[in-house]
Fold this sequence. Notes:
- There is one protein chain.
- With about 475 residues, this protein is an alpha/beta fold.
- It folds into three domains: about 5-175, ANL, N-terminal domain (Rossmann fold, 3-Layer(aba) Sandwich), CATH 3.40.50.12780; about 310-385, Luciferase, Domain 3 (Luciferase, domain 3), CATH 2.30.38.10; about 390-480, 2-Layer Sandwich (GMP Synthetase, Chain A, domain 3).
- The protein is about 30% helix and about 25% strand.
- It contains 14 helices and 25 strands.
- It has helices at about 5-15, 30-45, 60-75, 85-95, 120-125, 165-170, 190-200, 215-225, 235-240, 265-275, 300-305, 355-360, 400-405, 440-450, and strands at about 20, 25-30, 55-60, 75-80, 100-105, 115, 140-145, 155-160, 180-185, 205-210, 230, 255-260, 280-285, 295, 310-315, 320-325, 335-340, 360, 365-375, 380-385, 390, 395, 410-420, 425-435, 460-465.
- The strands form six sheets. Strands 11, 12, 13, 14, 15, 16, 17, 18, 19 and 20 form a ten-stranded mixed sheet that branches.
- Helix 10 (about 265-275) links the parallel strand 12 (about 255-260) and strand 13 (about 280-285).
Amino acid sequence: xxxxxxxxxxxxxxxxxxxxxxxxxxxxxxxxxxxxxxxxxxxxxxxxxxxxxxxxxxxxxxxxxxxxxxxxxxxxxxxxxxxxxxxxxxxxxxxxxxxxxxxxxxxxxxxxxxxxxxxxxxxxxxxxxxxxxxxxxxxxxxxxxxxxxxxxxxxxxxxxxxxxxxxxxxxxxxxxxxxxxxxxxxxxxxxxxxxxxxxxxxxxxxxxxxxxxxxxxxxxxxxxxxxxxxxxxxxxxxxxxxxxxxxxxxxxxxxxxxxxxxxxxxxxxxxxxxxxxxxxxxxxxxxxxxxxxxxxxxxxxxxxxxxxxxxxxxxxxxxxxxxxxxxxxxxxxxxxxxxxxxxxxxxxxxxxxxxxxxxxxxxxxxxxxxxxxxxxxxxxxxxxxxxxxxxxxxxxxxxxxxxxxxxxxxxxxxxxxxxxxxxxxxxxxxxxxxxxxxxxxxxxxxxxxxxxxxxxxxxxxxxxxxxxxxxxxxxxxxxxxx
Length: 482
């Protein structure tokens, strides 16, 4: 992506259109562009050079966006960090990434890292300067990710990788629905970057949500006339359980995109029952593959969209292969590990050559996800390879059990994990959040599953909790449930 040129062309096309809304703060594309160009000038005055690294550790706010866009326009590698990170976490990342500059409200001192605190003052005191033409192979962003398991790893994005999310969205025609988006996803996450890219590439208005509260969120969809929103299924579930869901029409909303975890068909049906004009969409991809790489086609038959585990079709430039434990290709409808290949795949984890060898082999990205392809080329997700529960030598896919449990009328949220068992090696454990005001017992849940699942897949242990632990983007932390 010729980043600065793309931004400049979008500004020329939509100069007076709202680019950014944050509470009462509004920037048109022309106003946003002036601030970005002034910050480019300020960064140059500070001595920033192409190829150096700038970490940003702020809550989602306009200043985060100005700095992100200015750095990318200048050839400065952005290291976006979550404001909730503790000081020691930030320091470790700064050292590992070899960061030169840090924008943060925190008092953090690391040798050879210059800290910048007042972005507004930099903007107000600088001259506007144009961005630069950059090599598409140059390092644009380093995203630190641990998913829901393991230690943080840094995924490098070149400027070419920035094309991937918007190319997939554009190929399937979703750019027509991305007129106004609302973002609660931290900019430290790939999802946050995708929101920025949609604004830069498609001219989408970006509304920054301050704090996710399900009822307030629904009201904000109406207030800001949002046309598309990206949500983990667990967040949508929470929204469906509010009184506000009966008070909104969401008449401007065209699409809800589910990401981060498989969405049960019941969610699609419930949303489309309440709001027939809204199209439920899901897709697939990893941070390591500059997601999304797979999406529902807009002309996908409804009966197909309601199939369990289905996530859509890969874009034409995305190669997908399903393999067994030996790495041999599997035929259609056989579950195995999902492999991805193409220009969108990261070159490897930053400064982690041995870890890279484990996940990228012969150009194929071993995703760690289990799934299958059908005869029409649609991809289905069965679960995470690490989450397969082996009961007496038989494989149980956590997602399959979760889908069944999600159909229970008294269950609001559920997660399934494996726990040790002397006789069987492992057994299935279900961690359940009940719907407000509705009660059930472990035995009732077990009996419900027995009607729908083979005996070895039925949970042996049922634990009730008031809520499930989640990451900042709404993924369930299963490691805390075992």
